[in-house]
Write a structure and sequence with these properties.
Layout: H1 18-30, E1 33-34, H2 43-46, E2 50-53, E3 56-62, H3 65-78, H4 84-103, H5 110-115, E4 116-120, H6 122-135, E5 139-144, H7 151-156, H8 158-166, E6 170-176, H9 183-192, E7 196-201, E8 208-211, E9 215-219, E10 226-230, H10 233-249, E11 251-252, H11 267-277, H12 282-289, H13 293-307, H14 312-321
Parallel strand pairs: 5-6, 6-7
Antiparallel strand pairs: 1-3, 2-3, 4-10, 5-8, 7-11, 8-9, 9-10
Amino acid sequence: MAGHGTDEHPHGADRLCEAGDRVYSRAVRRGRVPRRDAEPVPCLLELALLHPDPDDMDWLVPTSPQEVMTRLLRGMYDEVSASQRRVGSAVRAVEWYAGLGRQVRPAPSATEGSAIRVLDGLARIQAAMDEATEACTTEVLTVQPGGIRREAELSEGLHRSLALRGRGVRMRDLYTHVARHGQGLLTYLELMGDAVEARTLDEVIDRLILFDRTVAFIPANADRTMALELRHPALVEYLVTVFERLWRLAIPLTAPLPDTGIEGISHREQSIAALLAEGHQDAVIAERLGISVRTCRAHIARLSETLGAASRTQLGVRIAQAGLDGPPRSAASLSVPDQGSRTAR
């Protein structure tokens, strides 16, 4: 795409370049266009007039002319006091999009396209999140993996959370147990007061944000530079059900973690023991629990010392003997094996 940067397309959705006009009009008439057709006009993606087809990433689907009109009108009224000339330009563009919208029949996939939308790039994700936040009136549910939350991450979204609190929106957040040790999260919850309720689990699913049980956001790639905006009622209801079941299993942040019943073994080490028994490698265990590999290995070393294991193989046997290889049992049923009788090697 060299040679087709934004410098060659210094315009907005209200005055498309000639090439952009052709490609967007074709996309509206046909329902979608091949991604390669849009390579000479990156402005269409930057302006969110085209976005990836969730069923086939080699194709791009258009934002409906009606949605473009709504966006333009919103921007127009925000800028009236700053630029009358800009208002006139936007009005003319709205008339053009309105005419185009009357000329075509909705594409067969129009409903599906609005139910599942691919957000390509952090700016598009942020804009969609801001829009959902503004429309939210009752409830936000979130799952936040990754262990201790960095204060920069919490600060970045604080303005949205405060705006929600101001409108009486209730928020429920799920974190891993490791997040309990982050001062940033504790400060955030103190600022939000009773508007936010937080609970923790040993491990959680990938990031999930649900607004009013009508729209959900989930990552679409590993580095989270792409996301899916889901509005299909069945998909959203499924994710709500997943959240509610995790919520019932989680422990309130204000409550202590349950004791393992074995002296010298923490709740985290009990979780690590169960994952070791399942055959997971150190790096996988660390990722699932939201801790570093180095910290994970330090816990494994303490487990080996407490259980009297001289090797990983023997550690597996000791874990099974202590009853740490499955779901947590009651404290009375857990005991450290007799280290004086070491039959396993």
